[in-house]
Amino acid sequence: MAQIRIQNVRKDFGSFTAVKSSSFTVEDGEFFMLLGPSGCGKTTTLRMLAGLELPTSGEIYIDGEEVGQKPASQRDIAFVFQMFALYPHMNVRKNISYPLRSQGMKRAEVKRRVTEVARILGIEDMLDRPVGRLSGGDRQRVALGRAIVREPKAFLMDEPLGALDAEFRERMSEELRALHDRMGATTVYVTHDQLEAMQMGDKIVVMNHGVVEQFGVPQQIYDWPATRFVAEFIGSPPMNFLDFNAVMDKGTDSIRLGDATIGVPRQIDGASGKLTLGVRPEHVRLTDSGAYRGRIAASEYLGTTQIVTLKTPNGQVKARVASSDPVQVGDTVGLEFDARTLTVFDAGSGRALVSTANREVLTHG
Amino acid sequence: MSFSVTEPARRTKIIAGILVAGYAIITLLPLVWIIATGFKSPSDAIAYPPKVFFEPSLEGYVNLFTTRTRVTDEAFAALPPPETWYDQIVRDSRMVIAGPSRYGERFLNSVIIGFGSTFLTMVLGTMAAYAFSRFRVPLKDDLMFFILSTRMMPPIAVAIPIFLMFRQLGLNDTHLGMILLYTAVNLSLSVWLLKGFIDEIPVEYEEAALIDGYTRFQAFWKVVLPQAATGIASTAIFCLIFAWNEYAFAVLLTSGTAQTAPPFIPTIICVGGKDWPAVAAGATIFLVPVMVFTILLRKHLLRGITFGAVRK
């Protein structure tokens, strides 16, 4: 098991830059999520870790050793593909033992390891079956078996649950996380599903357009997004954005939105011009008296909560409130925001302004 | 009456069956004629109307493999009685065997050149196709077109230059020369066909093998080749059939040591009159290897000629 460190890694395909100067560190034993929309460079980053692509520039350290230009076969890592990539002309046993045979391991030892892995994954009874007739979940287990049988330095997984049915996905994600906790293996996991990333990950890197937008533990990323992109990509429904123009002095802790004064965390730096206030739906309260007002446009019932869509002078706001709250479409109500949870973004760059609340998160990552 | 999208109607099936059977009869008739003629006596072979029922004779086959001479009546009478069944057949036409014919050698030449060039084509073609399929080759599309363009002219157009080149290089009438020539001609077909097949194999299989600690060549050998077996087999059949049947280059470039069967068979006609049964016998035996090869690889061929249209 090992620490993985990526430093200023860049990847060009001809004139297209897939990854622009990315840096982050995966600590030993971490379950690490690479999250982003398709085409953001997360898979390319993973493939560079694996050695399936070589970086145009930058360094990759696995266990302290620089491996950036080494071929995959010399990196001692395992890779789980989205489409499983089980060898179709071999049965389950041969698939799982294939990486061991490349090392010239003794037959008895290979057999022992394969049996052991099959037991862990609960696939002992299908070892002699051809892989073509397995269900999606079982194929995934075999692919995992082929990865863990080697006891590699790290596991790299490229949307391993992406090809599974919804019901299987839930179960496999639990199995995966449990397997990781038992083995304590460093795992880098690529996904475009923010829920999956939040559920399973110890740490998350959010990427967009080949750039690392933010890097941290799930809760920090959810609560204190570094950019507007992160705020929008993570959370469902996403963070609300209210655009406004203002001059904010250093140390201010409130802003004017129309006629209302809204408290925000104390700002470290000043800012002026086009700004955006970010607020999570669950931090919006609907009141009768609030100074900042909006008209209720719609309401979605979700069981214990409901999502209320409001039109305000600064844009649309979605509020997550208890489903017992009486909500009448067409009514005008007051909106109150939880001042401790708000983030102000610079509308031009999309970056979050540093406040006393998010300073820790933004400066360490 | 109900209609089903997947199951054709009974009448459709019958019509289709009749059409297929009719087509099979038309294509197979010349084959039947050749095989039958091989077993006829020379007089039956040229009888008109053609004889459908005849007394089978091995004279054609004996004549194919021997050269015979006519001797004077006294010498013929003085001969010891025939030792073997084929001696007997020749004596029946008042001739004696002078020695073996060259058919065996020519046939062997065909085998060496046909299978040799097919093997070489497959080795080079598979590797080239793999490279074109997987790597970023500069000017890939242009190169692929150049390769294809070698097939765009009739062979006879380049026959003279090739003849001159071969003479200069000492490749005239050699096995090596013919193997190289047929390989060169077949490579375009094989690279194009095989690239199609290899494109169909997901690249993840090889990547999995690379990750599992295998080198690029091992991944190619142990993972890609087994997957491409179907395509390789059907491409090999096409290449073999071409090299086996090729006539124009063979006539021009071979005359002795390396002469293949196709230019040799017609020469049988001139030896001691128009010996049609011997020609037919030569053609029949010539058919056998390709037939066996095709039947052995039949399963692959059937799947292969859909050209990977069906997703595995």
UniProtKB/TrEMBL annotation, chain A:
Keywords: ATP-binding, Cell membrane, Membrane, Nucleotide-binding, Translocase, Transport. GO terms for biological process: carbohydrate transport. Residues 4-234 form the ABC transporter domain. InterPro entries: AAA+_ATPase, ABC_transporter-like_ATP-bd, ABC_transporter-like_CS, ABC_transpr_MalK-like, ABC_transpr_MalK/UgpC-like, Mo/tungstate-bd_C_term_dom, NA-bd_OB-fold, P-loop_NTPase. One of its GO terms (cellular component) is ATP-binding cassette (ABC) transporter complex, substrate-binding subunit-containing. Gene3D superfamilies: 2.40.50.100, Nucleic acid-binding proteins (2.40.50.140), P-loop containing nucleotide triphosphate hydrolases (3.40.50.300). GO terms for molecular function: ABC-type transporter activity; ATP binding; ATP hydrolysis activity. The keyword Hydrolase does not apply. Belongs to the ABC transporter superfamily. This is ABC transporter ATP-binding protein. It comes from Palleronia sediminis.
From TrEMBL, chain B:
Keywords: Cell membrane, Membrane, Transmembrane, Transmembrane helix, Transport. The chain crosses the membrane at residues 12-36, 111-132, 144-166, 178-198, 219-244, 276-297. Gene3D superfamilies: MetI-like. Its main location: membrane. The keyword Membrane applies. SUPFAM superfamilies: MetI-like. InterPro entries: BP-dep_ABC_trans_perm, MetI-like, MetI-like_sf. CDD domains: TM_PBP2. Residues 107-297 form the ABC transmembrane type-1 domain. GO terms for biological process: transmembrane transport. Signal peptide: none annotated. It comes from the Bacteria. It is a multi-pass membrane protein. GO terms for cellular component: plasma membrane. Belongs to the binding-protein-dependent transport system permease family. PANTHER family: ABC TRANSPORTER PERMEASE PROTEIN, MALTOSE TRANSPORT SYSTEM PERMEASE-RELATED. This is Carbohydrate ABC transporter permease. It comes from Palleronia sediminis. The lineage of its organism: Bacteria, Pseudomonadati, Pseudomonadota, Alphaproteobacteria, Rhodobacterales.
